[in-house]
Amino acid sequence: MSLLTVKHVCKSFDLQGGFFSSESAKLLALDDVNISLEEGGFTGILGESGSGKTTLARVICRLLQPDSGEVLIEGRSVNEYSRLELSMKVQMIFQDPFASLNPKLSLRTILGEAAPGGSLKAIEETLSLVGLPGDALPLYPHHFSGGQRQRIAIARALLKKPRIIIADEPLSSLDISIQAQILELFSELKKSFNISFIFISHDIVTASNIVDYFYVMKGGRVVEEGPAEKILTSPSTDYTKNLLAAVPL
Amino acid sequence: MLENKSETAMTMNILEIKNLSAEYYRNSETVHALRGVSLGVAEGETLAIAGESGCGKSTLAMSVLGLVYPPQGRIISGEVIFGGKNLLAFGKHDWQRFRGKEISIVFQDPFSSLNPVLTIGEQLAETVLAHAPGMAKNVLSGLVTGALDETVFEDPGRILSSYPHQLSGGQRQRIMLAMAIINRPKLLIADEPTTSLDVTIQKEIMDLIGKLRKDLSLTVILITHNMLLAKQRADRIAVMYAGEIVELNSTEGIFSRPLHPYTRALMDSVPRMLSKTPPKALAGQPPDLSSIAKGCSFAPRCREVMDICRSSAPGEYVIGETKARCFLLDPVIKIRK
After folding, report:
1. Inter-chain contact B274–A175, Cβ cutoff 8 Å?
2. Same domain, yes or no: B97 and B203
3. From CA B64, how far away is CA B66, in angstroms rounded?
4. Which pTM does this prediction carry?
5. Which phi and psi angles does B33 have, rounded to 5°?
6. Which pLDDT score, from 0 to 100, does residue B23 have?
7. Which residue segment(s) compose the domain that B271 sits in?
8. ipTM of this predicted complex?
9. Which of B55, B119, B163, B199 should we substitute to test contact with A (largest number of A Cβ atoms within 10 Å)?
10. Are A155 and A111 in contact (CB under 8 A)?
């Protein structure tokens, strides 16, 4: 049994027409999407903006309800879990480190909300895991750089001891040199913890350094999938080939 | 990248920055953003300024455009000479005539650079009229459509009447480029022009900048944190760290023989295709420029640090056309070591 299974998920959004238009169109954000994540897996979802990857992440976390299809974690539908139970199964790290932390809360409070029983010991241990000093606890988000805020977001996710972490473009807002640091951190977490990852990205080369298996998405559909090495060396769709060709080497 | 080496050797520097120092004032602290930067930009070349966030690359661009002034900041010393003119002596009106006409800039986030309540056509026209008030409508219209044509828009009519929110990120960045070149500047500064865009759109925008450079005989300064982007698109690269240029060389030279440990570390931190492991990250972060420590600013993170690095700051070691700010290049120190 896979840890996570997404079966025939469809999701569309109502769009309001342009400024002077009265018609409303539908945007088919997810069109019969099927993916699975195995225990210990590090799976990548690759695609450009608008391909549906973030919508898929939100559906998995139950932040959005699909129009049809189902999402199963450990064999059970996500709708059967209580909110607390679900938060201990799957956690998400978002793209924009400047928007995902409450600016009015100190680091201590932000992590205290996530830690079981608000345990200071657990918080300090997790901080050290992500490479942040313990004396940073009284500080507020605006004191930290983008890379540091992503580390905080990762610490917050880790404190729940989830089975799955979904990282939605976690590196995109960071400098290349800091991307390398966060990528290293993910690599260490992959080795030391029993957490499976879904890594969403538009940068195939960076993702390939850490991902085992790729799903390539375009226009709400999965257009290609396979082990990372295969996707990189012999992609079958032009779309994937373009993604590969676009990265400066 | 350099098509005719001897031709380039004879061209004058269109921009000459000499020993430029600038600071910002933030929360009652003084941030020493630029510390003695010297750089010449040859006409027609593409020069990349590479470095992490906070190294001063954007401040350098702002200084060249006269956008560093009290109360937020100040240029403390140095010279900026463009086409023979001393830019630091410019008054407010000189700058208004100059900015967007002789030197243009495109920024990282096109959405916040475009006015949300004006159509694209209106904004392009505004850019022209700011420098040529009272231009005849038909001439203006021709320039505007011409700019959209040059930035490869297939349906200029529809674009002209659109609002920024109706366009994609890539389209908006192309509009920014159209606005930047419509007045035929001599120098285009692109400050992280592709950072907020998808990889495929990044390539599109960089290809467009290359095309515009050729078509309009532009000189381009490309500011980026991505060394590989610099490698692909620039003739020369200036690497900045903590407000200083730490290495300057031709792209070929920097990649075949990087002189400064920071340059080497930056290149190591780029992901490689088909590598099973993440690249070797450079630990730590750039120093806080509100308090300049003794010694070389890179010493705390340097894998090749020596004792002298912690007590003294290295000067620039010049070898022909290249220079690097590192004691490893000092012949005397090398012998003693």
Report:
1. no
2. yes
3. 6
4. 0.85
5. -75, -35
6. 95
7. 13-102+187-286
8. 0.74
9. B199
10. yes
